[in-house]
Amino acid sequence: MRPAAPSLVVLFLTVFIDLMGFGIVIPLLPIYAERMQATPFAAGALIAVYSLMQLIFAPVWGRISDRIGRRPVILVSLAGSAASYLLLGAAGSLSMLFAGRVLAGVAGANIPVAQAYIADVTSEADRARGMGLVGAAFGLGMVIGPALGGALSLLGPRVPECFAAALCLANVAIAARRLPESLPRGARRVDEFRHPLALASLRDSVARPGAATLVTVFFLVTLCFAVLEGTFSLVAAHRHGYSAAEVAMLWLYMGAVAVVVQGWLVGRLARRSPERALVVAGSAALAVGLLWVPVASRPVGLLTALALVVGGQGLASPSLASLISKTVGTDLRGEALGVSQALSAGARVLGPAGGGLALDRLGAGAAYLLAASCAAGAFALTASAARAGGRLGARPSDASGSLRKSLPSFSDCDKGP
Q: Do 143 and 20 meet the contact criterion of CB atoms below 8 Å apart?
């Protein structure tokens, strides 16, 4: 096992800078769309197309990284992000805005590669902590990015995009100089390439013992959290009476909770508890928090409910990513994590749309009850798999030909080597 700490620091900075650049431009997109006389549907599609591209390309980047290594994929995707921001900055029409967002979605679908990198350089005992660092970098970038973008927009209409592009180019230089390759040549995949979302590939992915349960739980956890992401601003304003500034502060609070939970708490808890226990606890916290959000009558109650939701998602997601990485050999990690991220992207498309429809037709209570039901489903699946001692995956032989020890149960998958 190669030393992990220096690589994890560089990877944390890489994901953080990448997501900060993404966060800088997100608040400006609706404004640009309005200036170009976009319909409300087109403005919404401008946001959704990013997740659609991630759904398609996250498993592709993951599988390519299994074949050629993690480092070149990370560098190419960062360079693509820089190009997408420059394209957004130069956009003079709605079609150019869409082209920039499509490129941003393709380039930004690199999270499974970062997760596979972490799986390569960490022991199984430390993997959940490493996965949590990616989540913390994601959350921190998304907290700082929008605020920085708003400040930069005061300097000029194209300044935020140019600054984001410069950040990504600096990120390429840092990663090229400081981020070593994590996947040895002898451990790389050599079979014929096929799209990981092809039916045959998906069938092979879920055929691994325990894999279907893990990716289903991951989808449900992301789906219920995406309902909150897509509807909370409206619920806070219309149901609880908060001003726009107060809603923005609540989002900052949620971002801070996410950073603390994923960047610090997950690592400490993972040393004391098996990862499946963190998934169970996280799913339960999600369900309780989502039920509480629409009925919280006082600020302290709402803050507690939001902490449960964000903290629950922060406990469950990195633990699930760690468990998924343990169901396969080294040469399949990128694809396995890519498929899970593709399903996560699909959940981020369905969650806001479905939550918004339920909010409009049935009210906040029903919308959040449906979201809590998804969290309860994740809890039930994980708890039942743990009680049954279900197999999570017997790993194939690694590239050197030595047979890895199979993983006979959910709890066994949590243990260190």
A: no
For the record, the structure tokens of 311 come out as 């903290």
Report if residue 189 sits inside a domain.
Answer: no
Helix (H) or strand (E) holding 94: helix 94-107
Which carries the bigger pLDDT value, residue 410 or residue 181? 181
- Which is nearest to 103 in space by CA: 154, 160, 49? 49
| Spatial contact of 116 and 325, defined as CB atoms under 8 Å apart | yes
Residues 324-345 have a mean pLDDT of: 83
The verdict on 122 and 204 lying in the same domain is: no
Determine which of 219-223, 259-263, 325-329 has the lowest per-residue pLDDT on average. Answer: 325-329
Residues 240, 355: one domain? yes
Mean pLDDT of the chain: 83
The reported pTM is: 0.80
Confidence of residue 82 (pLDDT cuts 50, 70, 90): very high
How far apart CA 276 and CA 373 sit, in angstroms, is 19
Q: List 407's β-bridge partners, or say none.
A: 393
Q: What is the CATH number of the domain that holds 164?
A: 1.20.1250.20
Answer whether residue 184 is part of any domain: no
Together in a domain, 172 and 207: no
Is 319 found in the same domain as 172?
A: no
Domain that holds residue 324: 196-417
Do 161 and 222 fall into the same domain? no
| Distance in angstroms (rounded) separating the CA atoms of residues 389 and 392 | 9
Distances (CA, A) of 150 to 25, 29, 93, 153: 9, 12, 22, 5
Predicted local confidence at residue 91, as pLDDT: 84
Is 183 inside a domain boundary?
A: no
List all residues 6 or more positions away from 110 whose beta carbon is below 8 Å from its beta carbon: 18, 58, 61, 73, 74, 77, 78
Per-residue model confidence as pLDDT tens digits over 206-229: 667 778 899 999 999 999 998 998
- DSSP per residue, 189-245: --SPP--TTSHHHHHHHHHSTTHHHHHHHHHHHHHHHHHHHHHHHHIIIIIS---HH
Average pLDDT over residues 149-159: 82
